[in-house]
Amino acid sequence: MVDELSLTLAKLGQEVIVISPYYERNRHGRTGYLQKDPSGIYYVDNVNVQLDQQYTLGVHEGIVGGVKVMFLHHADIFPTPYCDGNAANTVR
């Protein structure tokens, strides 16, 4: 649904930016999958954020169908798209 909405808004001339986690491992257990994506998403820089402690997140971005996409990467915060059942990770 996010794909369809963001792509349609971009086609209507709206500026659209989608920010999403870049998981350490995708649903198939693979790492580094974003670098192999044909959309040309690339690493830009790091950003520091304060949660329960300070974390440094990698920022990756690109343009897909006129939509600017940004992915934030940190292996401990975003290990997989599916929770491992650990209560601390569930609420994070």
Describe, in plain words, how this protein is organized in 3D.
- This protein has 92 residues and is α+β, with helices and mostly antiparallel strands.
- It has one domain.
- It is 16% helix and 36% strand.
- It has two helices and four strands.
- The protein has helices at 2-11, 87-91; strands spanning 17-22, 42-50, 54-64, 67-73.
- The longest helix is centred in the N-terminal third of the chain and has 10 residues, at 2-11.
- The model has no long low-confidence stretch (mean pLDDT 89).
**Rg result:** 14 Å
Q: Report the biggest beta sheet as strand number plus sense, adding barrel if it closes.
A: 4 strands, mixed
Strand order of the largest sheet: 1-4-3-2
Task: Report the average pLDDT across residues.
Answer: 89
Beta fraction: 35-45%
What's the SSE pattern? HEEEEH
Separate helix tally: 2
Distance between the termini: 23 Å
Layout: helices, strands, pairs:
Elements: H1 2-11, E1 17-22, E2 42-50, E3 54-64, E4 67-73, H2 87-91
Parallel strand pairs: 1-4
Antiparallel strand pairs: 2-3, 3-4
